[in-house]
UniProtKB/TrEMBL annotation:
Organism superkingdom: Bacteria
Protein's name according to its UniProt entry: Uncharacterized protein
Organism in which the protein naturally occurs: Bradyrhizobium brasilense
Length: 131
């Protein structure tokens, strides 16, 4: 299961993806597809089992990029080269022979929102759902 979370903060906002190899591979494929043909994509609709507290949409960057709140629906605005670069970094975590339980890689700042990836297992209560 792929989990994604935007964690806003004035000090260090963070965008976090958590999942097993297959989940991260699916995300990398989605980002590559986005890089080839930038269009609005709802992540949870394209990756079965993806969960988050807030809906996440990949959207082409216009004059701004990074995370934007569209009224409880977060749009992650990326350029094609940013999506390609992030997909490459995700693929480094996906090989089946990579036996470590969990890795976190800081990809860098995308519109001043650091993106982190973690490969491994996480409990269902990691992301608290709103009632």
């Amino acid at each position: 299961m792929l989990r994604f979370e935007y964690m806003p903060s004035d000090f260090h906002p963070l965008f976090l993806f958590l999942g097993e190899s297959a989940d991260l591979a699916a995300l990398a494929m989605l980002l590559r597809r986005f890089a080839e043909d930038p269009q609005t994509i709802a992540v949870a609709e394209r990756i079965p089992g993806a969960v988050s507290r807030d809906a996440l949409v990949l959207a082409p960057a216009d004059d701004e990029f990074g995370m934007r709140d569209l009224g409880g629906r977060f749009a992650w605005k990326l350029t094609d080269w940013q999506a390609e670069r992030i997909a490459e970094r995700i693929e480094l975590l996906t090989p089946q022979d990579n036996k470590s339980g969990s890795e976190i890689v800081e990809i860098g700042s995308v519109g001043e929102i650091p993106v982190k990836l973690s490969r491994g297992e996480f409990t269902d209560d990691f992301l608290i759902t709103r009632r």
